[in-house]
Amino acid sequence: MKIEVSSNVVSMLLGEAQAAYPSECCGILLGTGARIVEARAARNVHDAPEQHFEIDPQALVDAHRAARQGGLQVLGYYHSHPNGLARPSSTDRAQAARDGSVWAIITADRITLWRSGDAGFEALPYEVAPR
């Protein structure tokens, strides 16, 4: 299944990863169906943000509440690997819920998408759509 990602989201994710360096940025991917149209930045509340991330719980609550009230759906999450590879780390694999969420992993110049499922992470192809 190919995911469509707004070009605005791609620009925002790359910019946020660069601005957060050397810490990891993180946030929430919003949209409908297989189309990601918005990325909502969240505070990384982990005690060691240079090596790990934890999305601010209030940002998660707010996004899910807005979705229940007719807003964009929470399709997944994102975080950066400031000095790593654009693929799930062993920590990502151990901590991700296997609920079918989309995960974007960002490096300095690359974004990859993954789906977390029963078998772990599966790479997702995507195309960049205007806005």
UniProtKB/TrEMBL annotation:
The keyword Protease applies. SMART domains: JAB_MPN. InterPro entries: JAB_dom_prok (IPR028090), JAMM/MPN+_dom (IPR000555), MPN (IPR037518), VirAsm_ModProt (IPR051929). Residues 3-131 form the MPN domain. The keyword Zinc applies. The lineage of its organism: Bacteria, Pseudomonadati, Pseudomonadota, Alphaproteobacteria, Sphingomonadales. Keywords: Hydrolase, Metal-binding, Metalloprotease, Protease, Zinc. This is MPN domain-containing protein. It holds the Pfam family Prok-JAB. One of its GO terms (molecular function) is zinc ion binding. One of its GO terms (biological process) is proteolysis.
